[in-house]
Amino acid sequence: MEAMKKGLFIVSLLFMGCCNDNAQFYQNQAKDREYQVQRLQFKIENMKAKPGSLCFFGDSIVLLWPTKEYFPGSYNRGISSQTTEQMLARFKEDVIDLHPKTVVIIGGINDIAHHIPSSETYQNLECMMALARLNKIHPILIETRTILGEHTEYYFDDVHPNLAGYDVMTNYVKTFL
């Protein structure tokens, strides 16, 4: 009887592991589909884009920023959970091919979450800025904490600004336009 209980316990642990692996698999597939849909939407917008516009590029901080309300005619190229390496890989298609006058770049928080060395993060951000300049696009690199500080009234969680935070960030960006 004791051996049977141990066997059932081991089988249940294995089953839970399989379920967790399957759940993770389906979550990853859903994220991948969401990513592919966003990329397709960006491609469609790029075909209709007016050169000389303003582009916001980055991770979920950009994605959640209601840029079209604050900057009519702008393009939001934020994708959740992106590292700067992933951002750099899509920079040509999402920014350069859009032919904006200015690009606002926000990235790096996910690099910290994935324990990517800060030297690599800085190198990726520098590459994006250099690519922008080579293509006659004015880059504006901003870091949320530098603008908003640690003031909790500007965040709805530990990372993402709330509307009051985005108001402050909007005013900051406008000083460069």
Secondary structure category: alpha/beta
Number of domains: 2
Q: What is the strand arrangement across the widest sheet?
A: 2-1-3-4
Named CATH topology of the largest domain: Rossmann fold
Report the average pLDDT across residues.
Answer: 85
Outline, from the CA principal axes? globular
Percent helix: 55-70%
Structure described in brief:
It contains eight helices and four strands; from the N terminus they run H-E-H-H-E-H-E-H-H-E-H-H. The chain has 177 residues and is of the alpha/beta class.
Question: Topology, pairings included?
Answer:
Elements lengths: L1 H47 L5 E5 L1 H4 L3 H4 L4 E4 L5 H11 L7 E5 L2 H5 L4 H17 L3 E4 L2 H5 L14 H12 L3
Could you characterize what this model shows?
With 177 residues, the chain is an alpha/beta fold. The protein folds into two domains: 1-48; 50-174, Rossmann fold, CATH 3.40.50.1110. 59% of the residues lie in helices and 10% in strands. It contains eight helices and four strands. The chain has helices at residues 2-48, 60-63, 67-70, 84-94, 109-113, 118-134, 144-148, 163-174, and strands spanning 54-58, 75-78, 102-106, 138-141. A four-stranded parallel sheet has the order 2-1-3-4. Helix 4 packs parallel to helix 6 (118-134). It is globular and about 40 Å long. Mean pLDDT is 85; it is low at 4-20.
Using brief descriptors, characterize the structure shown.
59% helix; alpha/beta; globular; 177 residues
